[in-house]
Specification:
- This protein is of the alpha+beta class.
- The protein has one domain (2-99).
- Helices cover 35% and strands 31% of the residues.
- The protein has helices at 10-19, 35-38, 42-55, 89-96, and strands at 2-5, 23-30, 60-65, 70-76, 80-86.
- The longest helix has 14 residues, at 42-55.
- The chain is globular.
């Protein structure tokens, strides 16, 4: 397993989530809201995650590479966790390679 810290402008991160990575699954956990529990489709979850990113700056972004999946983890304050699982490990790592810190 590989874990990378990501430093990327928020606007670029939103553009990548919207248009560039092939999302297999997404989980959004918002501790002070029940709306995230009511979202069922991947599109609804993506839209909600992007809305939260537009409203807030991420505090921590990590890319976790496992054998057959790439997981993008975005933490906003202590209240919102976004976990995006990508279908294409190689392409996802390539997209973020210019933003890797370690």
């Amino acid at each position: 397993m590989e874990i990378y810290d990501i430093k990327i402008p928020k606007e670029k991160l939103i553009e990548i989530i919207r248009n560039r990575i092939k999302i297999k699954n997404i989980d959004v956990e918002h501790t002070v809201s029940i709306l995230d529990d009511q979202l069922s489709s991947i599109k609804e979850k993506i839209d909600y995650a992007i809305e939260k990113l537009e409203e807030n700056d991420p505090d921590e972004i990590k890319l976790v590479i496992k054998e057959n999946e790439a997981i993008l983890i975005v933490k906003i304050e202590n209240t919102i966790d976004i976990r995006i699982t990508s279908e294409d490990v190689v392409e996802t790592k390539r997209i973020f390679e210019n933003y890797l810190e370690s």
